[in-house]
Amino acid sequence: MAKTISLLLPSTAEFLRRLGDRLRIARLRRRLSAKQVAERAGMSPMTLRSLERGGSGVTIGAYVAVMQVLGIEKDLDLLAQADPMGRELQDARLPAHGRKTARRSSAPVASPPSRARSAAVRVTVAPSSNTSAGEIGGVREPAENVKDWIEKSGFASSRVLADLIDPVARVSKKKH
Fold first, then answer.
1. What is the sign, positive or negative, of the torsion defined by CA atoms of 154, 157, 160, 163?
2. Beta carbons of 65 and 41 less than 8 angstroms apart
């Protein structure tokens, strides 16, 4: 039976090719042969060759095994760590406290998550002695390239939308 190979977007396939290149360069910098790395990672040299070419049919476990042999497996902890788009989408679905909802349209709308569930999903980074420059008050700020993407795409964050609300109008409504 033939193996099924995932179909990827060209940009994602290019990402895998660059990852494979970086792993090959890391192997060469450590002066390890392909045979040595393949043996230590528990795979055939052919699988390692495919991995270093960015093959989409290679399992993520094989990529992790090679990274472990090279001593760079902790780099995986950086993947999807900040997730600014996911956080913005999550915040957009949170119920507005104290606001009356507008008239319902006939189109079905997904209900927002319950307060208990949304509170459990919120993620913050605990302040520590190694707080980096990208963290403010224990909450991780998005990376610069994410900020560039947000600005270029016209994506409106909840913070930007909140700044559009006239704070004077809200205060005057509460006094009445």
1. positive
2. yes
The predicted model gives 44-56 an average pLDDT of 95
Answer yes or no: are the C-beta atoms of 20 and 49 closer than 8 Å. no
pLDDT tens per residue, range 116-128? 444 444 444 444 4
Q: Is residue 34 packed enough to be buried (19+ CB in 10 Å), middle (13-18) or exposed (0-12)?
A: middle
Residues 82 and 142: beta-carbon distance below 8 Å: yes
Left if phi > 0, otherwise alpha if psi is -120 to 50, otherwise beta: which for 80? left
pTM of this structure: 0.50
Mean pLDDT across the stretch 43-68?
Answer: 95
Please say whether the beta carbons of 115 and 122 come within 8 A.
Answer: no
